[in-house]
Amino acid sequence: MAPKVLDLFCGAGGFSLGFHRAGFEVVGAIDYEPAALETFRLHHDTLAVPADLSRLLDDGGPTGEDLLDLVGLTPADVDVVIGGPPCQGYSQSSDRDPDDPINDLVWTFLEVVEAADAHAFAMENVPGLLEHKGGETMAALVECADSLGYNVAYEVLNAADFEVPQNRHRVIFFGVRGGEPTHPEPLGGEPIPVQEALSQVTGELLPDNEWTDHRPTTVEKIAQLNVGESLHGKHRQVRLDPTKPARTITASNRHIHPFEDRELSIRECAVLQSFPPTYDFAGWENRDARTRQVGNAVPPKLAEHIAYALLKSLWEVTDRVPTDSVRTSSKQIAGPTGRLTEREVEATLLRAGGLTWEQVGDEMGITYKTASTHYYRAREKAEMARETFAVFERLNLGERD
Ligand SMILES: C[S@@+](CC[C@H](N)C(=O)[O-])C[C@H]1O[C@@H](n2cnc3c(N)ncnc32)[C@H](O)[C@@H]1O
C-alpha cells in the first residue's frame, strides 16, 4: 500500500507529480481555479475538486472535516497533506500587504492537516513567509503544528540544487508525527543550464509552444538586450543566460529567450520548471491562465526530492510505509505509466522510420496532431520508466523483481 496524499491548492499539479513519481498515491486534490483543475485532471487519475479554501476561515463556515467529505475521504484515507498556499502576500514580486486575507490561507492548510489527522505534511511557500510580520507568522505556524503533535522543520531550498534548470528559492515546511523531518540534501554537481533544458523543446507540435507575435518595435527593443538585461526593468522579462540555470519563472512574467528575440513560450517556461515536455496545460483560450499555472507550480523535480525525504522520515515512524509498500507503489508507477499502448508503439515506429507527422497520421488513419501526441506520450512513459528505476537506486532497495 502506497502512502496516500491529499494536495491542497493543487494548481496544475507540479507538487503532486513529484509525490506520485516518488511512490505516493495522490488520493485527492483541491483548488478553486477551473483551468488549473482541468490541467490537474489531465495528468492525475484522482478526484480533483473545486472549492474555495478561504471559506474554512468563515465563522460557521465549512470545516476541515466538511472539506475531506467533499473529496470523499476520511482521515483513514490520508497519510500526508501537501500544499502550496498562495504566496502573493509574502512574495517579493508583489507589493506586499501584510494583512492581505490571502495570507491566512496557510492556516486553512493546517486546519485540514488536523482534520485529516495526517502522519505528516509538507507545505511550500516563498521565503518571504519567514519574514512576514517580523517572523511572527512562521513562529505561530510552528507553534500550531507543534501543538497538533508534529515535529517540524523548515528550510529554504533552491530548485537548481535538485535537477531543476532554474534558480527558485522556496521554503519547505515539514511536519512529521513521531519522527524527525529531514530536508533533502542538495545533489551537488553542476546545475542544469538553460540551453540544455530548452533543447528538449523541439518542434512546434509540442503543446503550449506557440510563440508570441511581438510588434516590430518590441522585437527591435528585445534585439538590443544582452544577457541579464530586462525589457521592462524590475527583473521582468530578462534575457536569460544560456549557460546558467534560469531566473525564477513566475506566474505573470515570461523571460526573454537566450538566443531569439522573443519571450519564452509557455512550453519553454514549463520545461524550465522541470515539467515533462508533453505535460499540457488546460485553458487554450487564456494564455495568462496557462502562464500562471506554470509559474505557480512546485517544480516536479524539486517536489520529487521533497517526497523522497519525507518518505524516509515517514518510513522510520509508521508501518504505513514499510519497505514493501515502496516496492508496490513503484510498481504502480511502472504499471500505468510504463506500458505503451498499441497506438503509441505504432506512432513511435513510424516516426522512427523517418515519416513526417502527416505521413504518420495518414498511415494510422488519424490526424497528425493525434499521431504526435501518441509519440510524445510514449517518450514520456519511457522517461517515467527510467525514473522508476532511479527511485530504487536512490532508496537503495536493490533490483526490481
Ligand atoms: C502556488 S499555487 C499552487 C501550485 C501547485 N502546488 C503546483 O505545484 O502546481 C496556489 C494555488 O492556490 C489556488 N488558490 C488560491 N486561493 C485559493 C482559495 N481561496 N481556495 C482554493 N484554491 C486557491 C490557486 O488557484 C493556485 O492554483
Task: Write a structural description.
There is one protein chain. By secondary structure, the protein is of the alpha/beta class. Among the domains are: 4-189 and 297-327, Rossmann fold; 340-386, Orthogonal Bundle (Arc Repressor Mutant, subunit A). Helices cover 41% and strands 10% of the residues. It has 15 helices and seven strands. A seven-stranded mixed beta sheet has the order 3-2-1-4-5-7-6, sandwiched between helices. Bound molecules: S-adenosylmethionine. S-adenosylmethionine binds next to helix 1.
Uncertain runs:
320-337, 395-401
- What structural category arises from helix and sheet content? alpha/beta
* Series of secondary-structure elements, N-terminal to C-terminal: EHEHEHEHEHHEEHHHHHHHHH
Within the CATH hierarchy, at the fold level, what is the topology of the domain at 4-189 and 297-327? Rossmann fold
Number of helices: 15
Second rung of CATH, namely the architecture of the domain at 4-189 and 297-327: 3-Layer(aba) Sandwich
Total strand count, please? Answer: 7
Helix content: 40-55%
Strand order of the largest sheet: 3-2-1-4-5-7-6
Task: Detail the topology: elements first, then pairings.
Layout: E1 4-8, H1 14-21, E2 25-31, H2 34-43, E3 48-50, H3 64-70, E4 80-83, H4 105-116, E5 120-125, H5 128-131, H6 136-147, E6 151-158, E7 169-176, H7 194-198, H8 216-223, H9 266-272, H10 287-296, H11 300-317, H12 323-338, H13 342-352, H14 357-364, H15 368-394
Parallel strand pairs: 1-2, 1-4, 2-3, 4-5
Antiparallel strand pairs: 5-7, 6-7
S-adenosylmethionine binds at residues 9-15, 31-33, 36, 52-54, 84, 86-87, 105, 296-298.
Organism: Halomarina oriensis
Family: Belongs to the class I-like SAM-binding methyltransferase superfamily. C5-methyltransferase family.
GO biological process, one term: regulation of DNA-templated transcription
